[in-house]
Specification:
Elements lengths: L43 E3 L16 E5 L7 H5 L10 E4 L4 E7 L10 E6 L11 E5 L9 E8 L2 E7 L7 E11 L2 E4 L8 E4 L14 H9 L2 E8 L2 E8 L7 H11 L10 H11 L9 E3 L18 H10 L3 E4 L1 H15 L3 E10 L7 E6 L14 E12 L10 E6 L5 E2 L2 E2 L1 E5 H5 L9 H9 L1 E7 L5 E7 L6 E5 L6 E3 L11 H12 L14 E6 L9 E9 L5 E12 L5 E14 L2 E8 L1 H4 L8 E10 L5 E9 L6 E6 L7 E8 L6 E10 L3 E11 L4 E8 L5 E11 L2 E12 L2
Parallel strand pairs: 3-11, 14-15, 17-23
Antiparallel strand pairs: 1-10, 2-4, 4-8, 5-6, 5-9, 7-8, 9-10, 9-11, 12-13, 16-18, 16-25, 18-19, 19-22, 20-21, 23-24, 25-26, 27-28, 28-31, 29-30, 29-32, 32-33, 34-35, 35-38, 36-37, 36-39, 39-40
Helix pairs in contact: 3-5
Length: 736
């Protein structure tokens, strides 16, 4: 059956506001693109003409009750791994049987009685679109949905229903209908009988099937995560509450697809869902979830470094229908990860250290030097992100040749447009590693993020540029994700690229060049002087030393003027200000070590978000004219938050959590925001402090009652204009 809205008429002339009804002349009904829209199904649907008066239906079955078996400890949620979702509705996974129990007014007689279990989603449901599924359980069915009578006992019938492994993912309305000679008599609309159907990574028939139990549990069932940031040789961690099972999050994720006006018929395709969501996580062009901000001014929203999880963001978006302020790459990745895991697509957050932003596919980041070997800041426009976070989701790619399924890169951070929207992926990780960047989606851009060269050019007096130095190993230095079941990092760089200067890498670059991605081809003269920069771990506000190590590999002395440029940079590599510029004459013996002292007062007042310092050291050897270069990023460490709990760690028992922080700096911290939350423990809470004087301690205590048993994390953050990225987390074991 189909329902047609009589109000869908052609707009009168002069009323452009009704021009959204554009299906007329193209199709008989609009495209169904909302999970929530839907009209009431008639309680009685007659067959043909009806005699006057009500039909005699007393001799046929009457439905007294429908039990969805939807409690967390019952068969459905246990078998479908959905017992953690904080909702009373039944949540199941496609391609796997679930059961309902129907109570009739008398015992069921298979040869005499006939009934349907109907599933409806959206407006204008149609069998051909997969939005109306009339499941007759007492005879053999055509189609990929299946039903059977599992058990009969007195007046109760237990029915087993198996959704198609490629069916639409969303919230279905469910009805039970008895078939009579006069028509169909069905149950009334009851939201408590609605069924959520999700992707199923446990089913081999589903395109998101992941045949690794430990990884599947990590990438679907784990609500707490670690996101890595900082610098490749100095990794820091921030905890993140994905909270995919928290109350309201599943509905918020479905609402994201509704806001995207994604046709319901496309919502069973994991590739299309992931690509749609990569656009909808940002609000750049489509009223998406998060508003990006890299300016450092967060007066009208929440600083990206202050967030501790996705739940608050998604619920705010669902309630306000407006983009939530503000986000940077790890916030986009954290919320995107929640969306994917919540719908049943295995997903993880990935951090690429020294990530190139290449919008022309030339695999090159250019740094321009003047004739003396000093960086020409006016002409140097390219930058490299110290790190960049994106997501990987696991799925088969039936749209690609065999072998390109598995982990796929998706990125919600708005960097470049793809097919007219700010989105990226899904792109096969296997294709990226092997240079097969011709396959959709956006593989050349991601290939460049991990494979670009850093090329130093010398500007000659006639204005021409000559490549004088190439660093082929700086970009894509390390790709990390959270290890399975641990808090440590898992290095997955080898899944993206072969080792530098190997035969496999050369073959990949040749293959990528066939599709328009090419590296610089110039042959540079061998160098007899090498330079390396290093710094020990540095806390914000501390003085430190920059060590420059020179290796003179010739038999003679070498002399050079070394230019040391220290810059305060955003984590995207964009320079905010230069805080140090020194010139030092160095006479190089076969080995020489130069120490440069950096005082805190030189950089402290100029710090921006995430406290990164970028040193570029260049010089020209007088005897040979050779250009020497080195780059080093210093991630300034911040103090940690202390988190303690007290009370009985048991479900529904009151506990206390205390967050402590001591200001170790020689200056006061003003307008300080503190947040804490924990999946299954407590929703996000926040508190503002106008002032934390130097050497004083902040103490904040809150009560909470755990909602479920098992291991869980409490997470907290402290954030203010003068100090970003202060985090802490604590694992708590809750008893039943």
């Amino acid at each position: 059956f189909e329902w047609i809205d009589a109000r869908d008429t052609i707009a009168p002339e002069g009323h452009p506001q009704r021009s959204t009804i554009s299906h007329r002349g193209r199709s008989s009904v609009p495209v169904a693109n909302s999970n929530t829209d839907g009209k009431d199904v008639p309680e009685f649907e007659p067959f043909g003409l009806m005699p006057r008066g009500p039909p005699p239906l007393k001799e046929f079955l009457d439905i007294w009750d429908v039990n969805m078996l939807n409690q967390p400890n019952e068969i459905n949620k246990r078998n479908h791994h959905t017992h953690l979702y904080a909702t009373e509705n039944l949540i199941v996974r496609r391609g796997q049987e679930f059961q309902i129990r129907i109570t009739f007014d008398r015992p069921y007689k298979p040869t005499q009685d006939h009934f349907l279990v109907e599933f409806v989603i959206g407006s204008y449901p149609q069998v051909s679109k997969g939005t109306y599924i009339p499941l007759r359980v007492d005879e053999e069915l055509s189609g990929s949905w299946r039903g059977r009578v599992v058990q009969t006992m007195d007046n109760m019938v237990t029915v087993g229903i198996t959704p198609a492994p490629d069916c639409i993912v969303g919230r279905f309305r469910m009805y039970v209908a008895v078939i009579t000679p006069y028509g169909i008599r069905r149950t009334q609309k009851d939201p408590s009988r609605d069924v959520y159907i999700l992707f199923n990574p446990w089913s081999p028939a589903d395109t998101v099937f992941l045949n690794d139990e430990a990884e599947r549990d990590e990438c679907i069932l784990n609500e707490s995560g670690i996101i890595f940031y900082g610098e490749a040789s100095d990794i820091s961690v921030r905890p993140w509450n994905y909270g995919q099972f928290e109350y309201g999050v599943l509905d918020a994720c479905l609402q994201v697809m509704d806001r995207a006006t994604m046709p319901l018929v496309n919502r069973g395709d994991a590739v299309k869902v992931a690509r749609m969501a990569s656009a909808m996580m940002n609000s750049k062009d489509d009223d998406g979830v998060l508003v990006g901000n890299w300016t450092g001014d967060y007066f009208y929203g929440v600083a990206p470094t202050s967030w501790t999880g996705s739940v608050e963001i998604l619920l705010d978006y669902a309630n306000s229908n407006q983009g939530v302020c503000y986000a940077q790459c790890w916030v986009y990745a954290g919320v995107f990860n929640t969306f994917l895991r919540c719908l049943g697509i295995p997903a993880r957050v990935v951090s690429n250290f020294y990530s190139a932003h290449d919008n022309d596919g030339n695999l090159r980041t250019d740094i321009i030097l003047d004739e003396n070997g000093k960086v020409d800041k006016e002409r140097t426009k390219d930058s490299i992100w110290n790190y960049h976070c994106w997501n990987e989701c696991y799925m088969a790619r039936t749209d690609l040749p065999q072998g390109f399924g598995g982990w796929q890169v998706v990125d919600a951070t708005p960097q470049e447009t793809s097919d007219g929207l700010y989105r990226c992926g899904p792109a096969s990780v296997h294709a990226i590693k092997h240079g097969q960047v011709c396959y959709p989606f956006d593989a050349p851009f991601i290939f460049a993020e991990v494979n670009s060269d850093v090329v130093f050019y010398q500007r000659n007096k006639n204005g021409t540029l000559e490549p004088v130095r190439v660093n082929k190993s700086h970009v894509g230095r390390m790709v990390l994700t959270k290890d399975i079941g641990k808090e440590s990092a898992r290095d997955i760089t080898s899944q993206y690229k072969f080792a530098e200067d190997t035969e496999e890498e050369r073959t990949v670059l040749q293959k990528a060049e066939e599709f328009g991605c090419s590296r610089i081809q110039s042959t540079l003269p061998p160098a007899d002087v090498e330079m390396k920069a290093s710094v020990q771990d540095v806390m914000v506000g501390n003085d430190f030393q920059l060590s420059l190590e020179f290796r003179n590999q010739s038999d003679s002395h070498r002399t050079t003027n070394v230019y040391i440029s220290g810059n305060v940079v955003y984590y995207t590599g964009v320079t905010s200000s230069e805080f140090i510029l020194k010139t030092q004459n160095v006479t190089l013996k076969p080995f020489e070590l130069v120490i440069v002292d950096v005082k805190s007062q030189e950089y402290l007042r100029k710090l921006v978000d995430q406290a990164n310092l970028h040193f570029i050291i260049t010089g020209r050897v007088d005897e040979s004219g050779q250009i020497i270069t080195a780059m080093h990023v210093v991630s300034l460490h911040t103090p940690k938050l202390s988190i303690k709990v007290s009370g009985t760690a048991r479900v529904s028992e009151e506990m206390l959590v205390t967050v402590e922080f001591t200001n170790p700096f020689k200056f006061n911290l003003e307008d300080v925001s503190v947040r804490m939350e924990g999946p299954g423990l407590m929703l996000a809470k926040k508190k503002q402090y106008s002032l934390i004087p130097t050497n004083s301690t902040l103490t904040w205590t809150e009560s909470f009652k755990p909602r479920r048993s098992g291991q869980a994390w409490l997470m907290a953050s402290l954030d203010c204009q003068a100090l970003r990225q202060v985090y802490g987390h604590l694992e708590v074991n809750i008893q039943p």
